[in-house]
Amino acid sequence: MTRLKKGSALAACAIAMVSGFEGLRTYAYRDPVGIPTICFGETRGVKMGDRATTAECKDMLAVRLVEFETGMTRCLKNPAAVPDKPYAAFLSFTYNVGIGAFCKSTLVRKVNAGDLRGGCMELLKWDKAAGIRLPGLTKRRQAENAFCLRGL
């Protein structure tokens, strides 16, 4: 069951967080590690030369956030017990690193053990792409971490 109900405060928060970090590009570009990307960080099926409207990008993000939320919650023992701010921070993180990486992370192990603060702190460790620390990822993780901790 999704907590991202259309028009809800949590959905608005998650969309604002992800779109703010990802930025909007209506044409395909290569991300810092060379993956074709469009809209708000979308990589699925993207080819260089692709274009999308802002409305298409917003719709794509809303649909994909629900997909990522579904994958994220499958890996959490009790997702309903995670307060909204950490939940949104973890969803932003999952959208960025992928469901598989989220599910295998120490962050999930800590949250599932009841250590939400420890889970929030794990976000700070994920500021590299292809082994290279990226300043933008460092800023994103610091913001996700701060937002996460504010919700405890």
UniProtKB/TrEMBL annotation:
Belongs to the glycosyl hydrolase 24 family. InterPro entries: Bacteriophage_GH24, Endolysin_T4_type, Glyco_hydro_24, Lysozyme-like_dom_sf, Lysozyme_dom_sf, SAR_endolysin-like. SUPFAM superfamilies: Lysozyme-like. It holds the Pfam family Phage_lysozyme. The keyword DNA-binding does not apply. Its EC number is 3.2.1.17. It catalyses: Hydrolysis of (1->4)-beta-linkages between N-acetylmuramic acid and N-acetyl-D-glucosamine residues in a peptidoglycan and between N-acetyl-D-glucosamine residues in chitodextrins. Keywords: Antimicrobial, Bacteriolytic enzyme, Glycosidase, Hydrolase. Signal peptide: none annotated. It comes from Mesorhizobium onobrychidis. This is Lysozyme.
